[in-house]
Design a protein that fits this description.
heterodimer, A: alpha+beta, 20% helix, elongated, B: alpha+beta, 5-stranded antiparallel sheet, 8 helices, 26% helix, flat
């Protein structure tokens, strides 16, 4: 049932050319070079160390690894991470 | 980003250290409570460092209690904290204020009065006269009224033809232009030179005091020193300043040129009129009946009439009707009598020179030259006179 609602949502967003991330409440990840990552629509931090940051989202856990990672800002909607980013992994 | 940083600086923020085990939960809670945190750094497995607004910090404390972490303020940054710190250090603050006030006060005071262009009036005299009128070094700039300084100077020294007063930084600059004074009027207690006030050939030089530096027959131009007020005493090897006096007669030349056209055009109305009408609202106008003016030579007359006449209430109604009248004129060329023109031109030029001549000048010779070039009559009248060309110039006042 839930999957069906999701697929209907996706079809609607495609039909009306609406942004999928807003309709389906999905996270949106923006990468600037390898120094800055901003993640919209997150569901909280799971782990934060200098090398690894794991962030919970609707479609799984985003795992960002790198060096000297810092959280530049953290808001209820948005997280901006700076540092030397090496790997971004989605675990779902 | 810079704007946000400046904004944060003015609002004031704190750098805090949090110690605990469930630091990620703390961050999530802070995000859900809408506490703005930035620059979160992990220092070790148990310690986080972050920045927070002062307002956010108070709310943050409550969450910290729930999670069970330890929190401490590492540093307070920003303008409100700076003010708070300064309140503690009253001496520093008062020193700072004193410095600002002093700087402002000193830079808005007149520290020097500079007088330029005076040649016959000693500087000291003008300065002491200004002092009597409450204008002296040490006064505030605000109290200096340039116009009134100008007025009192012009009123007191009636031979000043031009006075300009300006303030540059802390300097009051007064620029004067003097008319030539009769030599007797110049203050005799000041040493002076006698200089030429116009170009001429020296005929006779009689120094009464001072040393003549020009000879008979020498050509001098304006501003040249004729009688020096500085005497060199050979025995003492010292300079003595004197008030130079004497008579310097020189041959001077005055000339004046008048150009008159031989053919004069006369205008005469033919009686033909071309009228255009229009409306103007304030200054912008619309012309009706656009068409070319059918005359080659014409004069334009504009007659304005307000649509509603409110003249008796003293109101100028902004919408007006206008009629543009073009009246044709006929141009006629009239050739004039050359002999008559020559005579009138000569009389006019002589009159002009006479008005320039000083009273004690003796006329030596008078010459008139006529020349006709492309319908223009050029008349030049040259008058040579002998007159005293000396003018006193106080030593130390001349501009280098």
């Amino acid at each position: 049932m839930k999957e069906r609602i999701e697929s209907v949502k996706q079809n609607i967003s495609e039909a009306f050319e609406l942004p999928t991330d807003i309709i389906m409440d999905l996270p949106k990840l923006t990468l600037v070079g390898n120094i800055e990552v901003s993640l919209f629509n997150h569901k909280g931090i799971i782990e934060y160390t200098v090398e690894t940051i794991r962030i919970n989202t609707k479609c799984g856990i985003f795992k960002i690894t790198g060096e000297k990672l810092e959280i530049k800002t953290i808001l209820s909607e948005e997280i901006i991470i700076v540092g030397l980013i090496k790997n971004i992994e989605i675990i779902s | 980003m810079l704007a946000i940083k400046i904004w944060n600086y003015f609002k004031g923020y704190v750098i805090i250290r949090v110690e605990g085990l469930t630091l990620e939960r703390l961050l999530n809670l802070a995000a859900t409570y809408d506490i703005f945190l930035w620059d979160v750094k992990r220092l070790s497995s148990m310690v986080l460092e972050m920045k927070s607004t002062t307002k956010g910090f108070k709310e943050f404390k409550n969450i910290v209690k729930k999670v069970g972490c330890r929190i401490e303020i590492k540093e307070k940054v920003g303008f409100p904290f700076l003010v708070w710190k300064l309140k503690e250090r009253k001496a520093l603050l008062s020193g700072l204020l004193l410095f600002l006030i002093l700087t402002f006060l000193l830079s808005s005071t007149i520290w020097k009065i500079d007088i330029q262009g005076n040649q016959q009036t000693p500087k000291e005299e003008i300065i002491s006269f200004l002092k009597e009128n409450n204008i002296s070094v040490g006064n505030l700039k605000l109290r200096m009224d340039k116009e009134s300084i100008k007025d009192i100077l012009v009123e007191h020294y009636d031979y000043f033809s031009f006075v300009s007063v300006s303030i540059k930084g802390t300097k009051l600059i007064i620029e004067v232009k003097e008319q030539d004074l009769p030599p007797e009027k110049v203050d005799k207690s000041y040493p002076c030179h006698i200089v030429a006030k116009k170009k001429g050939v020296i005929v006779k030089i009689v120094p009464k005091n001072g040393k003549a530096v020009v000879e008979k027959g020498q050509i001098v131009s304006e501003g040249d020193t004729l009688i020096r007020g500085i005497l060199n005493d050979e025995s003492v090897d010292e300079q003595i300043l004197v008030h130079a006096e004497g008579e310097v007669l020189a041959l001077t030349r005055y000339s004046f040129v008048i150009r008159v056209p031989l053919i004069k055009t006369e205008e005469k109305y033919t009686g033909k009129i071309f009228i255009q009408k229009g409306i103007i609202i304030k200054d912008k106008g619309i012309k009706f009946l656009k068409g070319d003016i059918p005359f080659e030579n014409y004069k334009e007359f504009i007659i304005e009439k307000p649509i509603i006449n409110l003249g008796k209430y003293n109101i100028d109604f902004p919408i007006k009707t206008v009629s543009y009248e073009y009246r044709e004129v006929e141009l006629r060329e009239v050739k004039q009598n050359i002999d008559f023109l020559k005579k009138t031109a000569q009389i006019e030029a002589t009159k002009e020179i006479n008005s320039q001549l000083p009273l004690n000048a003796k006329i030596q010779s008078k010459n008139t030259r006529h020349q006709i070039d492309e319908n223009i009559l050029t008349t030049q009248v040259i008058i040579e006179t002998i007159e005293d060309i000396g003018r006193k110039q106080i030593i130390g006042n001349e501009e280098d």
